Amino acid sequence: MEEARGELRAIVREARVLMSRAVALGAVPRAQSVMAPVPTIQPAPTSNPPVPGPSPESVAEPESTGAWPALTLALPGFEEFASAAPAPSSAIYVPLGPRDDLPQELPALRAQVAECRLCGLCSTRTQTVFADGSATAKLLFVGEAPGRDEDAQGVPFVGRAGQLLNKMIAAIDLKREEVYICNVLKCRPPDNRVPAPDEVERCRPYLEQQIALVKPSVVCALGLSAAQALLQTKASMASMRGKTFAYRGVPLIPTYHPAALLRNPGLKREAWIDLQRVRDLLRERTAA
Ligand code: SF4
Predict the structure, then answer these.
(1) Considering the domain boundaries, does residue 88 fall inside one?
(2) Which of 102, 110, 116, 117 to probe ligand 1 with, by most ligand atoms within 8 A of CB?
(3) Are the CB atoms for 220 and 141 separated by under 8 Å?
(4) What is the pLDDT of residues 174-213, one digit of tens each?
(5) In whole angstroms, what separates CA 244 from the centre of its chain?
(6) Is the domain of 123 the same as that of 39?
(7) Which of 48, 253, 284, 288 is the most buried (most CB within 10 A)?
(8) Number of domains within the chain
(9) Does residue 118 have its Cβ closer than 6 Å to ligand 1?
C-alpha cells in the first residue's frame, strides 16, 4: 500500500510539473491550471511565449535553421541571442570572456578559491570544492553546492547524487573525465541548505571565470539554483526546463539536479529528454 501511495505521489508531482510548463508556455490559462479537471492542452503559440522572471522583450525567436532542437531564449546579459528590443533597465550585463580581476588560469583560480573568505561559509567548510573533470571539456555541468561527501573529499558530485550524475554522463556516451563538473558555491552550506542569495552573489564570479576559461560548447545547469544563478533570474524550473538558453553565447540547458531525481524518480523521464538535447547539441556544435 505504501509503495502504491509513493507511486501515486510521484505521478501527481509529475502532473504538476507538466501543468506548470503548460501554463508557462501559455497553453493553459493560469486560473484553469488549478482546477481539478484535466484541461485540453492547446498547441503552443508560434509567437514568443511569455517567460516568468526576465522581461518578455528579451525573448528571442526560435532558431529556424533546425540547428537548435528546442526553443531558444535570450536573457539579460546573453547578447548573442537577444532580440533587437531595448533591454530592461534592470538587466545585468556581464562581460564576455574572463574577468581581468581574477586569475586567468584554472589552477591559480583554484588556489584563490581555496583561500576565499568572502562569505560566512568559509567558517563551516572542511575545504573548498572547486571542480572535477577536464579543463578542455566541451560539456560543463554546474550544480548547486557541495554536500557532506563533497566537503569531506574536496571533489564535486561524489555522493549518491554524484553516482547518478556519472550514470547520466555515461548515458550520453561520455565519461566523467571528459566533462567539467563544478558548483555555484565552492563551500558547503550547513545541513545542505539552499544557498543564500548573498552567498551566490559573492561566489558567482568564480563560476563565471571557470566557464570563461574552460570555454565549453554546452552548459548543463543541474537544478534550480544553478539555472537561476547563471541566468540571473528567479524563474521556476518548471518554466525553464525544456528550453535552451544562451549563456554568453553558449547554449545552456537547465535540468533537474541528480539529488532531485533521487527524491523523485518520476522526474527521470524529463531529465532524460534534457540529456538527449544536451547530447545532440554537443554533437552539432563539436561537429561544426
Ligand atoms: S562559498 Fe564561495 S564566496 Fe563563500 S567562502 Fe566559499 S568560495 Fe568564498
Answers:
(1) no
(2) 116
(3) yes
(4) 999 999 999 999 999 999 999 999 999 999 999 999 999 9
(5) 10
(6) no
(7) 253
(8) 2
(9) yes
